[in-house]
Amino acid sequence: MFGELTDLLSKKFAVSYLLPVTLFVMVSYGIMSEFKAVPTIPALGDDTPELVMPDNVTVIYLFMDDMETNTDEIEVFVMVTIIGFLLWGGGFMLLAMNRFILRVMEGYGKYNPFRILDRLGEPSDRFQQNLSNQLPPWLKRFLPSALLTVGEKKRLEKLKQEIAVLGQQGDSRQRDRLLRKQRQEFPEKEDRLLPTSFGNAIRAFEEYSRLMYGLDAIPGWNHLQAVITPEFSQLVNDTKASVDFWANVWFLSWFVLVEYIVIVGFRWYNPVDGWGVVSAWLIPWFIMIVLLFVYFCFFSAKNAAILWGYWVKASFDVFIPELRQKLELPKPATREAEREMWVKFSQAIIYRHPASMPERDTEL
Q1: How far is C-alpha 101 from the geometric centre of its chain's CA atoms?
Q2: In Å, how far are 157, 166, 175 from 170, measured between CA atoms?
Q3: CB count, 10 Å around CB of 88?
Q4: Best exposed site among 108, 113, 237, 338 by fewest CB in 10 Å?
Q5: pLDDT-derived band of residue 168, with 50, 70 and 90 as boundaries?
């Protein structure tokens, strides 16, 4: 949500966008090489005949050999430069698609796969229970809840039940731990739930400034950027970089899986001699490993989003008084008055409603 086009030569760009593209290219090249889908340059062996030069042309040969060496170095430099620009272009494409990737992972969109899977899990609790009972316990731990037709609403209800039981038992330590987990991973109300744990983790800290101060976080963040110090803003961007890294690796992993299936299918119907050492029984294992890695990336992105949320919430706590002064708004006498002021300010900037804008104190 808080994405912006940053410096394309910065550390954040290198970690969040350039590194995932580089890993994707390396894995893709390895897959295509394994199935002989890329041309290879044969190496010269020991049986290559040696070229014997006459004495009278030795000097000319040495000069030409030096020119050939310089030409090879230039070709290598040109190739490295081209590869660098291609990787940079791929990183820029990921940067341009950052908002789209994050919103897919959050579960936004009518035809979002996560939303469709969440709807499929609603009609039949009996089917859900039977499916869950048929799966081995070790597989349930690794599969996303959406694949088990257990949505985020069920997960929240189960967490609330555990909190209530621990409260009755008097185990305040475990209860506080689960209560903190609920506040970190879920929004305030159930009707605000999204179909993915990643989306709910982000929505949880998006609601923080509205619940605490009355300021809507999404439009309010752009205004807060005007008063956040560069050092603090850098800390926020560093934590956001981890979210972008795992989100981009998650996104590109799906392309690796599709690429692998397409190449395997093509080679299956168009075999060539020496098309790779991968046996047929290894193919499903590779697909399973990629799927598990996709889930690991999604899980890591959710944890990174929780950490990012800490810094976003701290930004509002620390700099919202400076934002009030910057906007020349009067200092409220009570917390209720402050909340009412920020609610009106949020309504004014969201709905473009001048009548809701609080009066400015020009004497500030």
Answers
A1: 7
A2: 20, 6, 8
A3: 17
A4: 113
A5: confident
In the block, residue with structure tokens 């809507």: 216
Report pLDDT for 72. 61
Does the model's pTM come out above 0.85? no
CA distance 330 to 78: 61
Q: Report residue 303 as tokens.
A: 């944890």
- pLDDT exceeds cutoff 90 at 85: no
User: Which tokens go with 96?
Assistant: 């341009």
Residues contacting residue 254 through CB under 8 Å, at least 6 positions apart: 294
Residue 235's H or E segment, with its range, is: helix 230-269
CA distance 175 to 162: 8
pLDDT at 145 over 60: no
Residues in Cβ contact with 103 at an 8 Å cutoff, skipping those fewer than 6 apart: 109
Distance CA 224, CA 228 (A): 6
CA-nearest of 320, 321, 317, 324 to 359 is 324
